[in-house]
Amino acid sequence: MNDRSPVMRRCFYFKLWRSVATRFFLCALTAAGILLLPSVAADEHSTGPFVLELSLDGEVEPILATYVDEGIADAERHHAALVLITMDTPGGLSDSMKDMIQHILASRVPVAVYVSPTGARGASAGFYILLSADIAAMAPGTHTGAASPVLAIGGYVPQIDEVLRKKINQDAMAFLRSFTERRGRNPALAEKAITESKAFTEKEALDGKMIDLIVSSPEDLLRQLDGRTIKRFDGTQVTLSLKNPVRAPFELSARQKFLARIVEPDVFFVLLILGVLGLYTEFTHPGVIAPGVIGGICLILALYAMHFLPVNLAGLFLIALALAFFILEAKAPSHGVLAAGGVASMFPAGAAFAEVEDGDGKGRADRSTGSRGFLFAGGSRGNGSRARRTLAGGIFAAGARRKVRADFAGRRAKAVR
């Protein structure tokens, strides 16, 4: 009997672990399913003109660019009368900004960008987005502009020669003129936001013919737009019919909320600290296992938040890390720590980073990769700086890479080369 006791104990522990692992697996699959749910779309069964409302609140970055792209596509599928983007942004990444603008210009549904509420701003990258819309509106007590491209390397703003500075500004000015002229706005005044970093109040923007309306609320905006004839980017004339509109919000998906939350400075710094401390503890105290597991996962998430890793590559690394944990679990006694780490890395996080196919066969993650280009930043809302990945197309020599992050209002620009 005593000879069989160790075997029986091993069988008991094996069955117990299998039960625990199964529950972990089912919970992880449930979390993965939630993270892969699409963005909340609007109800198709409506009688009045349909208005889809998006909220661009925060820095312009790949996750919000994907969100705006999907919102415009959803509006087109539902034959919406208008896409209303309420904006309050300090600026952000140039490639994410350009991605949004390209979809706004190509949208089959008229797009209105509204800087709101009172005290909000459409600064820097938000200035470009505002001027690219079919209808540009601002609430009282808001401002826009300050759209000079900013480059920071190695934690400081470098002294660049005048030729390079001129190339950067001329490229930004040409991009701004490419759509402001066709929108019937004032490109000469708009360019001062680049050359002089000039900012404008809502009244200055209206008097300068850069925006169309000053309204106090979205309801007031829709009321004033009803019956208004606008000229689309392709030159066609469209009369808006917005009487008794059916308004529906288009919300971030669970996956997008998860990824957007990771790149917030408070979460990013916690992940980075946990990652570094976890790996340091594992290297200095071999065999503890748990710090190494936690540190490995947190470090990959932190590298994504810093835009060292594009979203799909971060997902691949998480899946590879999970497989490594599963293999090590079979060879090293970790009391389930490695297996639990593998489940956590493979399913909730891995599913969130997974590439999802769009209707055109292109992966959404392609639009959420580490961005290339300059940062257009109009300041941060009390948040610390974080590194951003960039490859300046047409500005630096091919293959030159920078990690860029910058902000205005006297804050320190930070970057890693």
Provide a concise account of the structure shown.
Helices cover 46% and strands 13% of the residues.
Structure keywords:
417 residues; alpha/beta; 2-enoyl-CoA Hydratase, Chain A, domain 1; 2 domains; six-stranded parallel sheet; 15 strands; elongated; disordered C terminus
Report on this structure.
This protein is α/β, with parallel strands linked by helices and 417 residues long. It has two domains: 20-37 and 255-353, no CATH class; 50-252, 2-enoyl-CoA Hydratase, Chain A, domain 1 (Alpha-Beta Complex). The protein is built from 13 helices and 15 strands. It has helices at residues 5-35, 62-77, 94-106, 125-132, 162-180, 187-195, 202-207, 218-225, 254-262, 265-284, 290-305, 311-331, 337-353, and strands spanning 50-57, 82-88, 91-93, 111-115, 121-123, 135-138, 143-145, 199-201, 213-214, 229-231, 237-239, 246-249, 375-377, 389-390, 402-403. The strands form five sheets. It has a six-stranded parallel β-sheet with strand order 9-6-4-2-1-12. Strands 5-7-8 form a three-stranded mixed β-sheet. It starts with a helix and ends in a 14-residue tail after the last strand.
Q: What is the CATH T-level topology of the largest domain?
A: 2-enoyl-CoA Hydratase, Chain A, domain 1
Q: Shape from CA axes?
A: elongated
Beta-strand percentage?
5-15%
Assign the CATH architecture of the largest domain: Alpha-Beta Complex
**How many discrete domains?**
2
The number of strands is 15
* Whole-angstrom Rg: 25 Å
Structural class: alpha/beta
* CATH class category label of the largest domain: Alpha Beta
How do the strands of the widest beta sheet line up side by side?
Answer: 9-6-4-2-1-12
Mean pLDDT: 78
Task: Show unreliable segments.
Answer: 39-45, 356-417
* CATH homology group of the largest domain: 2-enoyl-CoA Hydratase, Chain A, domain 1
DSSP summary: helix tally: 13
